[in-house]
Amino acid sequence: MTLAATARLRAEPVPSARIELGNEVFLRTAWRDLNGRSVGVITNQSGVTSRLESIADAIRSRSEIAVKAIYAPEHGFRGDRGAGASVASYVDPATHLPVFSLYGASRHPSAAMLEGVDVLLFDIQDVGSRAYTYISTMAYAMQSAKQYDREFWVLDRPNPTGGTIVEGPVLEPAYESFIGLYPIAMRHGMTIGELAMLFNERFGIGAKLRVVRMAGWQRSMIWPDTGLQWVPTSPNIPTWQTTLVYPGTGLLDSAGINNGSGFTLPFFLAGTLGLDGTKLAARLNARNLPGVWFRPAAWSPLTGFWQGHELTGVQLIVFDPRRLYAVRTAVEIAVAVRDLAPHAIDIKSVNGLDKDWGTDAFHQGLLAGESAHQILERWAASTADFESLRRRYLLYA
């Protein structure tokens, strides 16, 4: 093909999705129920339609809807801030709208931030883990909506890992923090809209809540089943596959085990200095964990605490995402590392470890020399109770 012919080619459209997102249902019909009221949009780079149009741009293109402000979670409106980095408020040069930070000086929308806003719309892609801060941002915004008498609408989106598997531990109130506000399971198996209903009723927020449901989504669906394109939800969640392992290996760094964050395979690695990766892989593969295989690996993190150090351990090869139990896998890794190289496990900072896991059962089991099965049994009953509780808030079959 000649250069001239290549230049005449047009970009192919994004393939059609097999579901309709909550934001698309909103844009198609539900927006009429605003009845002329103005909106503020809590969103980031992941808040897009199936055609990859930003919800903020899609709403602004509708003259019938008045957008007054945007509100940004951790990592910022454009997703360009690192984990834990403070996000500033500013005027967005593309939309000319004020962007109020919900991960800076305040994490609750204030009365000043809500001036002129009648309805808050929430459209952010979640990853299915209690420890991911976007659901806490949603809860805080719902609390402000209640306090200042604003309506709160959630434009529902899929749980990328599906809606059938639930894994504890369930957060214990003593360890409540921004990475775990309410007693829900680590891997909750709920959509962001279902979580909003749970938070609002069970945990007493009491906001004027509306969930704009998706069309066509089923609990058995994982991300590829939806036909949607993945937009990185944060710097260390570059692919939808990352969401499979994050609820488990995302918790290992507080035990002194590097999980690949700061490297090119975030959350698909587990190891530390001087660990025998071959022995660790053999030990873990002998456990016959569903959906995952382990291979010896070595890597040098490019950023963070371990930057420049050569680490050894294992890479997780997820060959059956529907069968993977991420939290169980993380517990198995920690127990194997403890048994093979006790010096590698660092739980001196118990407070940080317990906050991440939402319980002290994990560190107590490790110190007591318990097996992975014994540690998991510590929270089996509370996880079963949560599974029973969540059923009344499920919107999809």
| Name of the top-level CATH class of the largest domain | Alpha Beta
* Oligomeric form: single chain
Mean pLDDT: 94
Unreliable spans are none
Distance between the termini: 49 Å
Largest sheet, in brief, is: 7 strands, mixed
How many E strands? Answer: 12
Q: Predict the CATH topology of the largest domain.
A: Rossmann fold
> Which H/E pattern describes the elements?
HHEHEEEEHEEEHEHHEHEEHHHHH
CATH superfamily of the largest domain: Uncharacterised protein PF07075, DUF1343
Query: In the CATH classification, which architecture of the largest domain applies?
Result: 3-Layer(aba) Sandwich
Proportion of residues in helical segments: 25-40%
